[in-house]
Amino acid sequence: MNVQETDREHLAAFLLAMRSQGGVEARLMEAVEAVPRRLFLPDIKGNVYTAESFPLPCGETIGSAELAWRCVMAMRIQPDSRILEIGTGSGYTTALLARMGARVTTLDRYKTLSKLAAQRMTTLGIENVTVLTEDGSLGWAEGGPYDRVIVHGVFEKLPKAFSDQMASHATLLCAIGPERGAQRLIRHEKAGSRFEEEVVGTVWWVPLKAGLAARL
């Protein structure tokens, strides 16, 4: 059995596991099926849908496929959602977001990762994504306000800069907690000048680094 056939089997099993969780909307299932994870992990051998993280260039990592779809599901994306993503990484979650929303602006401080992610969007024919090599530690006000924001990083508390870039009734997903150890993955729902918070999981993310990478 070749890699393509094996990947199809692993994807089928993964989709079955997703369906067994209940409450996963059909649009998200279709997005996961339409975005081949192998494209984002070309050098990884074996099952790319396992519940583990994988290394990326520039010393970064990509979380599990399950974490990706759970993050997307938690954001409750609508077809007209304007989305900001901080921490493009491989671009896998970016592609899922693009399949779900109207427009995605995604930032990464590493030009290597941004370039590879942009190439993958082109390969998949995804045109509703803008990939930027920028410092996203304080968001990206130029494209705001946003309906949905996801930050692949942890804060001690949510920076005001992000809340200022969110539209009314917008949703932001990020980790809150210590730099090391387990953190709460929290969905922040903006309601006027205040936030309603809901813990949707546990993650082990790292703080965002400010500035652009000097070399990579």
From TrEMBL:
One Pfam assignment? PCMT
Supply the InterPro entries for this chain: PCMT, SAM-dependent_MTases_sf
Tell me one GO molecular function of this protein. Answer: protein-L-isoaspartate (D-aspartate) O-methyltransferase activity
UniProt keyword annotations, A-Z = Cytoplasm, Methyltransferase, S-adenosyl-L-methionine, Transferase
- Enzyme Commission code(s) on record: 2.1.1.77
Q: In Gene Ontology terms, what is a biological process of this protein?
A: methylation
Output this protein's name.
Protein-L-isoaspartate O-methyltransferase
Question: What are the leading ranks of the lineage?
Answer: Bacteria, Pseudomonadati, Pseudomonadota, Alphaproteobacteria, Hyphomicrobiales
